[in-house]
Amino acid sequence: MSRPFLKMNGLGNDFVVVEARTAPFAPTAAEVRAIADRQAGVGCDQLVSIEPSEKADARVRFWNADGDEVGAGGNASRCVGWLLMEASGRDQAVIETQGGLLTATRAGDKIVSVDMGEPGLDWRQIPLEEEMDTRGIELQVGPIDDPILHTPGCVSMGNPHVVFFVPDAEAAPVVQVGPMIEHHRLFPEGVNVGFAQIVARDRIRLKVWERGAGLTRACGTGACAALVASYRRGLVDRKATLVLDGGELVIEWRESDGHVIMTGPAQVDFTGTLP
Fold it and tell me: Rounded to whole angstroms, how far apart are CA atoms 264 and 15?
């Protein structure tokens, strides 16, 4: 049965969004990979389905391009939030995900803020293979006496993140190191790998090697994780602009309730029909 889809993006991090509130959608890993294939399929970083929910305006599921279902997608949540608000005419939408309920709020023309909830900071929440202080874990890349990367922070935003601090994000070995760390034994569920350059107390340049997707134009949960990890090390303030390859996100780790708020654009690219 053919099924319509929307192709959307948040800062170039792109998604195929499927409406599944009227007809169930249960793709196999092979079907997800076929849809995500940029040569033979539609092409995307993530496949997203919008399903019925008893707790929220909709339940949302996310699959990475490699076919694995994952618990969260920050940029995708912003895009879905915008769709739900456009459909309802309201300025707020509640989204149910594997990681919990997220609230999306209209913040401008095709600009959406999403309350991503509290970050997970305990080693078991990441999860890590063994107990470590997630402000800076015992992990390094390169020679023992002169590592090129070391002591990254770890944060869960409904999905696992590790954040290395680098002097120059443009020169960071993202493609070389990303796959190695993604599958490192310390991360039993795999991990998203961030490379963060502190530009100022309110500005971070970030590149992210995404678990199951590789280097993407932007990673919303990665931006949230980078802000939290940087703040915990005393490197930035609670609110900063995250500069990604695809554009900018404003991230705030709110002091009042400990929630992380992500604000950025949502865009519809085109519509189509899945075979």
Answer: 16
